[in-house]
Amino acid sequence: MNDELLRRFRELNPVPDPDRFVTLGAPDWPTDPALRAVLDQVSDHQYRPGAPHLGPERDVAPKERPMSTLTPPRNDDNARPEPRSRRGWLLSAAAVPAVVLVGGLIATFGPLDDAAIAPLATEPEIDAEQATNDQAIETAEAYIDARNSYDADRALELVSDTFTTSEVPDAYTLDTMELAFDFHEAYGNHYSGGDCEVPGPGSGYAEVDGRVVVSCDYLWTDELQRITGHPGVPVGFVFRIEDASIASIGHDWNPNEYLPKVYDPWLGFLFRNHREFHGIAVATHDLHPERTRTFIEQAPEYFARYEEWVQEQAD
Hints:
The protein is an alpha+beta fold. 45% of the residues lie in helices and 14% in strands.
């Protein structure tokens, strides 16, 4: 049985050249299953006095075992290395490729540091310019929502102290905004289907440092268009927004789509049938406080008379 174990050990562990033998230290136990099985059995008896060794038979007392050193064994008596030293050579030699491999990886990729193993960012950084543009669009849309609900207080919160506008009525200012919104409500002005964007370079809109230009397209309807069945007039707003406040509003529309088809017939009806109210209706565009309040109070009555007349003309 011992001879068979020794034969298998020699097959798995060829005897190295003693002149090149160097002990690198105390290696770990081998991981190869076949070699471990042989070494486990041999190591149980190879150091007992009188037990056979891998070299010539001799008795070695435990206290006389040679210790591993960093120098080759002496070759003056041509003795083979002790069994434990041979096993240390085998395992040390097996560890050399692993050391070389790890050293090569470090030389190639460099030592790992905190930056190399830092976790990936889970949230992309928000583009500052895009965030500013998005806020400007929200401000413009909020103003149109205030117009549609005739909420002058909300609109005043959205505009700056130097706010100007070219909207109709022409005298629309911070001081007359509340009156203007009441006037719009009397006419039933409403804006739907809004589409707002920040135009790119070369759009034709004058740019001012620190201000974001927002262009919005809507379909405008009012009480007169409802009465006459007019489908609505496309209108555009150009907002210039600074620090989330509206500095100015430009009003872009085609008067030929409204005046001759909708507004002029209304004024003609008033001039022929209700001249007393015709002057008031014409004079409201300067937002004169007294005349505008009179128009707001009486407009529902005259709109109803105009609707009856339009139906009569259709019959």
